[in-house]
Amino acid sequence: MECISIFDMLKIGVGPSSSHTLGPWRAAQQWIQELKTANVYNEVKTVTVDLYGSLSLTGKGHATDLAAILGLAGYDPVTIPIDRISSEIDTIQKTHILCFNGEKDLVFDPKTNVIFHRDFLDFHPNGITFNALLSNGEKIASTFYSIGGGFVVKDEPKQDTTKEENFKTFPFPIQKATELLEYCATQNKKISEIVLENERSIRSDEEINDGIAAVWKVMLESMYTGCHTEGTLPGGLNVRRRAYDSHQKLIGNTPYNNPTEWIAAIRDTEVKFRQILKWVSCFALSVNEVNASLGRVVTAPTNGSAGVIPAVMMYYMVIENHDANFDDVKQFMLVAGEIGSLFKKGATISAAMGGCQAEIGVSSAMAAGALTELMGGAPEQVLMASEIAMEHHLGLTCDPIGGLVQIPCIERNAMGAIKAINACEMALDTDAKNAKVPLDKVINTMWETAKDMNTKYKETSEGGLAINVGMSDC
Ligand code: SF4
């Protein structure tokens, strides 16, 4: 049984994509460790990267090549200064020199050393192979698969290289929503309390609190940055950033100097009914505009859907409960992470496997459940809210124009957040005993829908909006 930590579902990283940016980046780092373990790292003379399937078809727009290069150059997605990314890539493109793992210079031309293949590898649509020529003339290669949400595996699903998986069995091992509910009933605990006990079996309370605080800090800063950055997004679609204008109209002249004061300032504005939708949309848009410009966001459960959870958390803080504090954030993230892990175990969080239902649908389900617990819902209502949110994303395809994580992705986060809030309200108004569709059934339905979905709607930009609205239309 997989034991997935909430920190596997909520990872700090760099945009625009968890499967196409964070995953390949992590794969490059893991390959370097493989070389060291095999005692051939010092013998590497040249490296090349092969991208397959979806990683190739939407790799340019999703910055897969850049992510792999930055991983090979020894940078970490959590700590790399965002303003360093473009200058580092520029330097490699101009000099054709890559400082391998930040330690030794190799000749490397991104145009020829990263090869985009149209074909798919058998195991998973997101394949990436790293090749090295050693000083003795030997050639070695290693293939990884980016299976969504920044998770990376070799060629066996159970060999997931995320360290929390396979770590040890949680005190409350959970594969299905029904098991989670059973624990809540027998232990007389909320979902967040069960999840917290599981987290405590692998890290200290201090580490849990610090980890969640770090996640929320990045989420808040990504909203703040997005709301205060004007201009056009990179990539050629000429998408104008909308969060800035929307925020200007909403915040008015209320003063503040930093993200914490900003929360207080929003609480001080008199938010009218119509403005609630605008604020939530603004929060979600802001994160995904930051994501689209290779900024720092939290994968939740993916980068393309990174705006939903912060937007709904912020909704709770500035609309529902002005006294909300870190305890609320912690409770929210514990529930959201667990709901996300149920989808990863029972279906997929990879758009290359399941389309956008696996990204925005899952993030909306995570946020809906988490909000419902904060609003006082029973565990059954929490899972009902998640079920409702996913039920109305079933079949949602992935068809990003130009392979960029912009259209429809950015707006879709706003829609996912609004649906999450609505799903929460419906669940709170319902006796969950009358629920007709259990969460496990909707997870299974999503997986079956994913398997039936045509490949052109699975992060390949070969169908849908991606072909009906081309780059030239923008
Ligand atoms: S359409 Fe959805 S799944 Fe596809 S890249 Fe955009 S946000 Fe991700």
Q: How would you sum up this structure, described in words?
A:
Helix 9 packs across helix 14 and helix 16 packs antiparallel against helix 17. A hairpin with a 2-residue loop joins strand 7 and strand 8. The N and C termini lie far apart (46 Å). The protein contains 20 helices and nine strands. It has two domains: 149 residues, D-3-phosphoglycerate dehydrogenase, domain 3 (60s Ribosomal Protein L30, Chain: A, 2-Layer Sandwich); 309 residues, no CATH class. It is α+β, with helices and mostly antiparallel strands. It binds iron/sulfur cluster (SF4). The site of iron/sulfur cluster has 13 residues, from helix 18.
List the helices and strands and how they pair.
Elements: H1 6-9, E1 11-14, H2 18-37, E2 44-53, H3 54-57, H4 64-72, H5 82-95, E3 97-100, E4 104-107, H6 110-113, E5 114-116, E6 126-134, E7 139-148, E8 151-153, H7 177-187, H8 191-200, H9 205-227, H10 243-251, H11 259-268, H12 273-292, E9 296-299, H13 308-320, H14 326-346, H15 351-354, H16 360-374, H17 379-391, H18 409-428, H19 439-452, H20 465-468
Parallel strand pairs: 2-5
Antiparallel strand pairs: 1-9, 2-6, 3-4, 6-7, 7-8
Bound molecules: iron/sulfur cluster.
Iron/sulfur cluster is lined by residues 304-305, 351, 356, 359-360, 398, 400, 405, 408-409, 412, 459.
Alpha-carbon distance between the two ends: 46 Å
Strand order of the largest sheet: 5-2-6-7-8
Number of strands: 9
N-to-C order of helices and strands: HEHEHHHEEHEEEEHHHHHHEHHHHHHHH
Bound heterogens, unique? iron/sulfur cluster
Shape: globular
Question: Helix proportion of residues, in percent?
Answer: 40-55%
| Largest sheet entry | 5 strands, mixed
| Tally of separate domains | 2
Poorly predicted spans:
158-167
Structural class: alpha+beta
Query: Which strand-content bin applies to the residues?
Result: 5-15%
Number of separate helices: 20
Quick check: average pLDDT?
Answer: 95
In angstroms, what is the radius of gyration?
22 Å
